[in-house]
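Q: What residues go here?
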């Protein structure tokens, strides 16, 4: 029972559902490039997804390691405060996951190895330093590392198909939308956690620049996504399937803006989580259908 208790702590540390989202983002990038270039080679997909999963998992573990003092007060049931995993064990586990992720990247290409190394370093630096000292830098790091998995998957397709330039351009389109939406959600989370963050001296856009500025910035980003969402179908290669799913993103963004104006930040954050899912489906559905039917 003691072993199972500890194993459950390790599993909880890596946040499997969030790692799955990161892997799916990598698939979005890979499939997008395969569809637009007409080249599908799964040989490069699996090491890329392994790197994404391992680095993402390591990032979540290292976040819990550095937040153990905060979690001891606000989330005492988390693996480290509850004693299921010691801080030293969590730190070693995080470093091992990050190292294995970087190794998986290098097994694919030097580019992917260096890419994974940079992301791993950012994921370590965020909770260790940025989270409590650098408001906007921290938010931007979270958004950039989250969206980077899409480009990572796209570059994997580019390596196998010898089309790195085309793969970077193709995967940058969904990555740009993901970055903007994640950044908006980061601002909403800062609004939701304002009181707790203020009490413990955390640096966020809300604690550093005020609630009004954070809310205005979140609304501005959501409006940008809503306005730009139809463009891949109107002037790009996507069609009706994308447009139908993108319309859900637009509606959810408008709904989230309404919630933000009313100060209902937890509901807005949950709505944006659903919007992110529809956004991923919008970029994934049409390429998958095209690749299946070709």
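A:
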């Amino acid at each position: 029972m003691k072993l199972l208790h500890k194993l459950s702590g390790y599993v909880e540390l890596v946040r499997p559902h969030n790692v799955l989202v990161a892997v799916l983002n990598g698939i979005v990038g890979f499939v997008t490039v395969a569809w637009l270039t007409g080249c599908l080679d799964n040989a490069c997909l699996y090491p890329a997804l392994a790197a994404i999963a391992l680095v993402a998992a390591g990032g979540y573990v290292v976040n819990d390691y550095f937040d153990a003092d905060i979690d001891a007060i606000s989330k005492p049931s988390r693996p480290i405060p509850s004693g299921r995993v010691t801080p030293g064990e969590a730190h070693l586990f995080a470093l091992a996951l990050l190292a294995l992720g970087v190794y998986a990247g290098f097994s694919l290409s030097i580019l992917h190895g260096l890419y994974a190394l940079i992301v791993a370093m950012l994921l370590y630096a965020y909770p260790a330093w940025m989270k409590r000292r650098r408001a906007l830098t921290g938010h931007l790091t979270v958004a950039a590392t989250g969206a980077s998995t899409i480009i990572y998957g796209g570059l994997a397709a580019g390596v196998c198909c010898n089309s790195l330039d085309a793969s970077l351009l193709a995967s940058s389109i969904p990555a740009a939308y993901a970055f903007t939406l994640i950044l908006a959600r980061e601002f909403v989370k800062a609004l939701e956690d304002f009181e707790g963050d203020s009490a413990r001296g955390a640096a966020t856009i809300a604690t550093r620049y005020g609630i009004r500025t954070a809310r205005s910035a979140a609304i501005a980003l959501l409006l940008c996504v809503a306005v730009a969402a139809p463009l891949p179908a109107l002037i790009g290669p996507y069609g009706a399937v994308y447009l139908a799913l993108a319309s859900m993103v637009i509606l959810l963004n408008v709904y989230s803006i309404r919630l933000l104006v009313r100060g209902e930040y937890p509901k807005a954050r949950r709505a944006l989580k659903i919007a992110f899912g529809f956004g991923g489906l919008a970029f994934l559905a049409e390429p998958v259908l095209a690749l299946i039917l070709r």
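A: Context that may help when evaluating the design: The two ends are 52 Å apart (CA to CA). The first helix runs from residue 2 to 14.
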